[in-house]
Amino acid sequence: MLSMKQHLPRIKRYFRENLGAPFVIGFQVLLLVAAGFLVLGNSALANEVAVYAYYSLVAGVVLQLISFVRQGKEAEKKGSGG
Fold first, then answer.
1. What is the pTM of this model?
2. Among 13, 32, 45, 80, which residue has the least CB neighbours within 10 Å?
3. CA–CA separation, 29 vs 74, rounded Å?
């Protein structure tokens, strides 16, 4: 059985390579929180949290795009022997 210490370097590398991942995870959490407020009947607060969730998703997608382009350039450099 693998312990958390064995997975920690892989998790750190994932977040370092995928800059937008924390924002996308934050989006999912905020969306669940907004759904919870909606269930409790507080639609105004649910709407406000959903707006912040959307901003988090936009930031995450933009950062993921930057990561994707950056990794492509690094792979191109390695492939050309430079």
1. 0.79
2. 80
3. 32
